[in-house]
Amino acid sequence: MASVHPRKNKAGDVTSYQVKWRLGGARDGLWQTERFNDEPSAQVFKDAVDEADQQWPLGWVKGRGYITAEQAAQEGDEKFRFRAYATESIRQRAKGEQRYRDASLGELERYIFPTFGNCDIRSTEHFSKSTVGEWLLLMQRTMVFRGSKHRPMSPKTIKNLHGLLSSILKQATQEEPPLRARNPCERSSLPKARLPSEGSEDEDDEPVEDIEFLEPHEVEGIVSCLGRPEDKRLVRFAFATGLRWGELTALAARHAKVDGRGKTTLTVTRAWKWNRERSYYLGSPKTEKSRRTIRLSRLAWRDLEEQGIGGQKSALIFHNGHGKRLPYSTFYDRWCDAVRRAQEDGLLPDYKAPTIHDLRHSHAALLLSEGRGLDYVKRRLGHESIVTTSDRYGHLLPQSDDDAMEIIDASLGHTPDDDGQEHAAAGGRGVVYVAQLGHGEGWRCEGFWTRDDAELVAEQWGQDRRQPARVEAWAQEWWVRQHGNGLKDVRTSVPDRVRIFQAGPAAYAPDGTVLYTADGTDGPAASWAWEWEERYTLRAAVDRVQYRPGQEALTEAEAWGVSESAVREAFTAACATALGQCAGHPALSTGAADREGV
Fold first, then answer.
1. CA distance 469 to 444
2. How far is CA 482 from CA 48, 372, 444, 446, 468, in A?
3. Residue 386 in this model has a pLDDT that exceeds 60
4. Largest CA distance in the chain
5. Are the CB atoms for 348 and 339 separated by under 8 Å?
6. Which of 341-350, 368-377, 539-548 has maximum average pLDDT?
7. Rounded-to-integer distance, Cα 50 and Cα 62, Å
8. Measuring CA to CA, which residue among 581, 518, 593, 595 is closest to residue 548?
9. What is the rounded CA–CA span in Å between residue 296 and residue 563?
10. Higher pLDDT among residues 595 and 340, named by residue
11. C-alpha–C-alpha distance, residues 383 and 520, integer Å
12. pTM strictly above 0.90
């Protein structure tokens, strides 16, 4: 049953009357409220709620009252009531997983149905710029929990809720025939991201929407203010990997591996999910591209070892202390306390109020500022599209700004005074465009001063080899750090490329038996060679005979060059030479000496 409660100010005077009830009358139903200036009006509304079986009365818009309520009642068509129409709209959406549909229905029930649930989807009075605007103001006054803190709803959450409402009204305009002429949400003014209040003394008054990028020393400052060793390792690992919270806390010991080359890796294959039926459960990551394998640094691997990955392979790495899921709200309180202490101790600027998710943003920013390209960061973070990576991080990087300023200065004829270092020799350019070619052991990268040259080489390589190739922009400092020869290897033009023919290799055993030959029946194979490759030559033919190491004591013969006929002749001559030399393989005399020594 609904009830009426007088609301008093600090002086004890009654200022309004609140009608309060649980939605649907269930003991666990969501609390609903509506305020009135006088008690008789509140009582009338209370009776209307009871008559509607503890639902919002038909046609009532929260904060405004009845808006032609009799319209929907006279038509008697329940399918056009917003609650029914919106619920069916969400249930029929094929795109997205069940978790999305459950979350959308929950948001409708909690934040949108109380205002619009009994309104008619077709009504221009029920749904107008004015009514949507009133609802937006109500959402700005709504308090929600972040961890254990009760805060006003963030502009981002309001934007998401507004987008949900807008998608349903848009669908109504696209019905056949249309149920509405226009979508009033398209004319809404959404709230701006909140900034800290000027002169506020509230320590928890922090920016809600702005991404807060942390420097490595600032992350370490927060870590030093965390009390629990496992919390310290979790924060360092989150910064070192850029994982989402749901991915981070879903990691099991089996996901951390050492590959055949001794490189430490982490495979992301799952994340914590939630829906109404199953509550929290382990499911697929956010998108298909979120399933990924990333390299781990030495320090990140050490944190995993200290956290304990040597036990059961299915055991969670980061948990609640009892091997179960670590709730975000539980850790969030400890995080906020550490941030506050770091600010008090001067380890973190007062104007920075990072969230846990900002560790992911800071990881991306660090990689980009050190010269790694957007595509690399996209793959490491598991973004579905590089547009997401570019829009979120591309304009927020000081290093990128520095490089851009250098390029502008260079275009205006300014050369920096750096005492004749390589940077000046390169004409003051701040960016190296890197063509990353191939994969696996055959992977290599070539640096260029112009993007056009790098893209031309990458495109041609992909066509020639049928292998992946891409171009990234690296800061000069990062290129120098990766290449011992500094900027001398950065190319000023497209390198030469020739078409060569190759015959062999053919391998001979010590007794002259031919064990294998790569020479096909159609003669030497044709391919393209770049000037940095071993096979590159401008000669008609080059031949080579060499002893191969190993107990088999093989002797190989091969030939290559730009003339097919000359290569064929050279290969025949090389085979004859190999046949004559195979019995003298050094391994044979070494093996005999070893046997005599025994």
1. 10
2. 73, 11, 12, 12, 21
3. yes
4. 116
5. yes
6. 539-548
7. 16
8. 581
9. 48
10. 340
11. 45
12. no
